[in-house]
Amino acid sequence: MAAVLVTTKINGDTVEFACPPEETLLSVLRNRLGLTGAKEGCSTGDCGACSVTLDGRLVCSCLVLGAEAEGREIATIEGMADQDQLHPLQRNFIEYAALQCGICTPGFLMAARVLLERNPDPTESEIRYALAGNLCRCTGYDKIVRAVQATAKELRRPEKNKHRRKKA
Amino acid sequence: MGNDPSYTNQDFKVIGSRVKRPDGVDKVTGRAKYGADHNAPGQLVGLFLRSPHAHARIVKIATARAEKLSGVKAVITSADLPDLTNGDAAARDILENCMARGRALYDGHAVAAVAAVDEQTAKKALKLIEVSYEVLPHVTDVDEALKPDAPVIHEDMYTAGVDPRPSRPSNLYNVSEFGHGDVEAGFAGADVIVEKSYKTEQTHQGYIEPHACVASVSPDGTGELWVTTQGHFTYRSVCATLLGMDIAKLKVTSSEIGGGFGGKTHVWIEPVALALSRKANRPVKAVMSREEVFRASGPTSSTSIDIKIGARRDGTITAAFAALRYQGGAFRGAIPGMPWAMIGAMTSFACYDLPNVKSVGYDVVVNRPKAAAYRAPSAPMIAFAVESTMDMLAKELGIEPLDLRIRNAAREGTRACYGPVYGPIGIGATLEAVKNHPHMRARLKKNQGRGMACGFWFNFGGQTCTDLNIATDGSVTLTVGTVDVGGSRASLSLIAAEELGIPYEQVKAHIADTGSLGHNDTTEGSRGTFSSGMAAIFAARQAIGVLRERAAIMWDIPVDDVAWAAGHARARGRKHSKLKPLSLAAIAAASPTTGGPIAGHNESVPDNAGVSFASHICDVEVDPETGSTRILRYTVVQDAGKAIHPTYVEGQMQGGAAQGIGWALNEEYVYGEDGRLQNPGFLDYRIPVCSDLPFIDTQILEIPNPNHPYGVRGVGETSIVPPLAAIGNAISNAVGVRMNHVPMSPPRILKELERRDAL
User: Fold this and answer.
1) Is the pTM of this model over 0.90?
2) Are B209 and A106 within 8 A, CB to CB?
3) Where are the domains of chain B?
4) Across the interface, do B682 and A47 touch by the CB < 8 Å criterion?
């Protein structure tokens, strides 16, 4: 079948690509656009390693077609830092050792950012349920939850973060 | 916290600090390159055709139609992989596991592979390959496989380790025995004897990153392989052997690794990807699907175990016996000479000081994928059986389970159940720490229970080769050949910084490709930080020798007058009192004119990795309506010898515990009557998610390993050993049912609750 021509916005940049109608957004990002930060762990929406946002909503990019990106806004892990300033979640994932192998990390960061945008003061339980669609096999989630808690606390006290250019 | 024996009381500067890992920014920004993130110009897509049958003769494979499809560049079967293993049975098993040779031995066994210009074409080509099968009888259960009427999988398999040699082939390929004393006499002297049989189902390591590689073989006989692996040097040797290449002419580069836990210590798709590349004369990228990972990359053994323990009234164990039946899939064990049940038998009673002990391992083949190592391989299952029986024994004796363990705990000088006499060990210290832990005094409600259990793992040293190079600005490159599976670049940089007396940030650790360093064994057996760390210490000390020589040249004094301390060369003696100390950077800056680059190197086999022990405490709540178990609180106490980077040591302890919790409660390979795997995906093979778990508390003890300059012991594996039994014991204390079948899933618990209520 003929390729579909798609115009979309990824991390703020207008992007054009052509892909077969059955190709997933994950495959487009990874294999056509060189954005390999989203990972393929299962291709069935069970592991969350391919998490990106589509118009601000968290999705598994393995369950979205590339063609569905037409006219939408996509955010991936590659756009999370503000140039050389890491997002507080990224900084705290390193600080709290919330990653071991790191393959799930981009997905967790995307999911955690969406959580904190919607709920700046989540309980431990709310964090755990918000991240339940992302599998991590290394950490037992302990340090991931702590990193998210620390970030939420930090972001709720913006006066302490004036030197940071970007908040959430 | 922990012990502080007199023989090591080192004053560390950076060891033990919680620095940021050097690969952190790459991994939180998506920049880190994993197995599937690499591409080669002109690469083809490699895909596999796999057997839908558990056991079948391959009558014919017709590939002509696939080969004729436009865009298909190579199709291969076992005919393209001649047997070059030269009598090496382990290598031949690997070859046959990579591609079926005349028979498919399990559901998912590869029978052919294609390389095509894109995935769509490769998928079409797979459909055009016609395979005629003659389905054969199969067996997937370890106990069924041992029955006299079971289908015999290998006609040439005669049990090893028994005398006389059996007259008929069977699925039992090895019997091994360990122990000492007189077990029968020990049981005769017991006041109480407890016997119980157990089963554990098969689990998968469950790394989130599927196997992936880019293979490129040139007609000149050289090749390159980019691959996610725990051991790129081992992959190189194995692939070169199977393909008839010179080992040195195959360059293997390890990608960042997205989890392995033992599953990436063995080759699966890599030799086939190389063979496809050789045939097509183009690079080939091969990535397993999640379904393929479950069906065709090695899970751990399912088991069936009998335990018998006898004790006197005062709680002194007089004898212990274990019979372990482990299936390793359709092949002999993955580690030559160390089949899975043998390893399990060795670990069986390693936590205890026993006068009479015997463990017998029965290694069995079934029609399942070839088993691979999974974190402390073979130990969690036997620990479940032994530690559950210990709790039953304590109940019979009217003794606290913890006190029974303390009374019988192994100590320095104890002869281990697998032979050696222990040096300084941490089992007693972990048990005392459990006794003193506030977790043990927390209140419990209805349907809640607390359990504890112990675990042991050997740890491994292995061949290691490391370089340390000092740049002219004084920054230091540490080049190691062990793959960084979870933060070892941070711990190894700390070690180099400690030795040289420079800040951590001045060291940059790299993982070398196989063309840049001598052979390094796979990162397994908790050896990464232990072995490469030891090699880094000795490489740094050699570099310090060079730095002293260069300082001597700069000062024009004898090298014996130069000492090294706190990152500086210092001239010894009153006659040199005017010579100001030279920093590492100053000596490095002068190196072009004092003899050239400054480097240190070490190649070694650091044995005596130092055995490791852990004790875990777990609180659960069992829902009597559904049989579902929730983990309320979890504490890991483990001896690390010396924690180089305590945060990442905690991470290993927490991660292993979480994997053990999944194994205990949910994870299980489910095979149908047809011998097909019914749950090859994360939806139905359910690993723990964030909302399943509480925070996992950790307590690191440091009982130094006398065989390591800093006292380090491996820390990566032991934490998966106790959880199965700790949870089983907690469930028993919560609702009064003794679970003897793992996973302790809701249906199994409900069945036991119904049986309890029917009494």
Assistant:
1) yes
2) no
3) 1-10+423-457+610-759, 461-604
4) yes
